[in-house]
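Protocol step 4 of 5: obtain the predicted structure for the target chain.
Materials: sequence only (see below). No template structures provided, no constraints applied. The aim of this step is simply to have a reference model before the mutagenesis design in step 5. Sequence pasted as it appears in the construct record:
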Amino acid sequence: MTDPIEPGQREPGASYAAAGVDVEAGERAVALMKASVAATRRPEVVGELGGFAGLFDVSALARMRRPLLATSTDGVGTKIAVARAMDVHDTIGIDLVAMVIDDLVVCGAEPLFLTDYIAVGSVVPERIAAIVRGIADGCQQAGCALLGGETAEHPGLMAPDEYDVAGAGTGVVDAERLLGPDRVRIGDAVIAMGSSGLHSNGYSLARLVLLGEGGPGLGAHVDLLGRTVGEELLEPTRIYARDCLALAEAVDVHAISHVTGGGLAANLARVLPARAAVDVDRSTWRPQPVFGLIGGIGRVDRVDLERTFNMGIGMVAVVAAADAEAAVALLGARGVPAWVCGTVRERREGEAGDAEAKGGSGGAVSLVAEHPA
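Step 4 output (structure tokens):
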């Protein structure tokens, strides 16, 4: 039998805190991230952090003859599992910006701003601040503002240490400067830009091989890598946005492809017209050791490796043949390894290439020859 409730007293009831949501922790997280967000501010940003919506002054777009807004959204995938396992959370945001903003820049768009969404099992202010610090770092590298975002606590749906991140970006390009398949010409040079490693794709396979049964594990130092497996897996994705925009200003760029899920062939094919093909020459570069490590330990054949990972090339530009040398020099001067890896040619009847273009339309791309030993 329960004790009677005295007059004037109420039986304790449910509360948001009892349900697992810590509103005060959320407020502390916002306070900790303010400086990081402020560091990404562009002159067009209106207002301060804390509003219901981010505001961006687009009056400058009136100077364009026909401004086109470009938008992209993405996440980081299972690379987050590595960040959680290592308790390192200040680089995953760089990966997020790379995945979102470098998808925008391929059409020639200048990235203007990004908004983020962080879902967590339990708000740990310092962890949230570290994640946002990484996102802000990425935004600064890309030249866009971190205009706002949302942190949502999902107790009961996610474990206390679980989280996921997503972002949406907006950019603008004048229609007359839009890049894409329509501008590609037979004889164009294909310029490869080196990746920083795995970037943020193929981590389900990478984790299965390197962290699963028979794998070396996160903490193992691998001489071939020159560091631990965990450090290699958390290497941030290279952000190419400013470099691609600088390239488009300086030389005759016709198309750009961001090499993400699906690998080099599928992503390059999607920016080629249906009548065009490219033979990408493997002998022009040596992939980083991590790709060979995954292939060797997991006995992953080359077809699967090349359809899953970037294999050392994170971005590709298709430029006028006469500008190939200048393009390679400009990118090299900006710290981006670059080289000519192929030439656009006429597609042969029935030619399919190594992987169908993502989306099902585009040209044909085949990887030929062998990588240097």
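Step 4 remarks: The mean pLDDT is 92. The first strand starts at residue 45 and ends at 46.
Proceed to step 5.
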